[in-house]
Write a sequence for this structure.
């Protein structure tokens, strides 16, 4: 198993400092996820807004690894459920736990699992090269879309599969794939800049 980027750049000689650095990295990705939620574009033909959150979730997970990546998204959901304004703006649903039961609940609840999978692949070196980073992030994005579309079918809206795909997948898949192609270059670039891509 390969060290993650956070493993590679954190302190190795002092366990206390290392834990503090890891906690700081988790908090950083949590905050970035909340910030990305505020860049939200409502679309008239679907209750799901366009945001940059999935890319932050996936890049953050690639940097943190499976456990810390998942922790960053569990923390994000926890503070959102507690009522802090970290979820995307909604004209109908307030901030807080109710958001998880709204149309976007499936996407939100999928974030920890998408982060875990992408981070798990990063721990196996998928984030070191561009093509494999694309594959890792595609896997994570599939988890996000699966959670989102499934919730549109089984949650409060109870949409049929064609309607759920029309509301939760088709409007976003091309743009998200384009974003993914850009975001997939982040980790290989960071490894190259730090000169640690071959570290094992």
């Amino acid at each position: 198993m390969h060290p993650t980027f956070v493993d590679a750049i954190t302190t190795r000689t002092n366990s206390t400092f290392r834990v503090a650095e890891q906690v700081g990295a988790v908090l950083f990705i949590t905050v970035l996820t909340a910030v990305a939620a505020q860049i939200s574009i409502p679309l008239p033909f679907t209750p799901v807004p366009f945001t940059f959150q999935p890319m932050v979730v996936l890049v953050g997970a690639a940097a943190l690894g499976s456990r810390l990546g998942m922790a960053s998204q569990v923390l994000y959901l926890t503070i959102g459920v507690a009522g802090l304004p970290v979820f995307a703006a909604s004209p109908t649903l307030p901030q807080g736990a109710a958001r998880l039961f709204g149309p976007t609940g499936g996407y939100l609840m999928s974030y920890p699992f998408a982060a875990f999978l992408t981070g798990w692949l990063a721990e196996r070196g998928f984030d070191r090269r561009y093509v494999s980073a694309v594959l890792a992030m595609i896997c994570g994005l599939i988890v996000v879309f699966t959670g989102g579309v499934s919730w549109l079918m089984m949650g409060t809206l109870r949409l049929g599969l064609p309607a759920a795909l029309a509301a939760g997948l088709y409007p976003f898949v091309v743009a998200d794939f384009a974003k993914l192609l850009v975001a997939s270059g982040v980790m290989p670039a960071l490894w190259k800049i730090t000169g640690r891509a071959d570290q094992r």
Notes: Residues 4 and 123 are 6 Å apart (CA to CA).
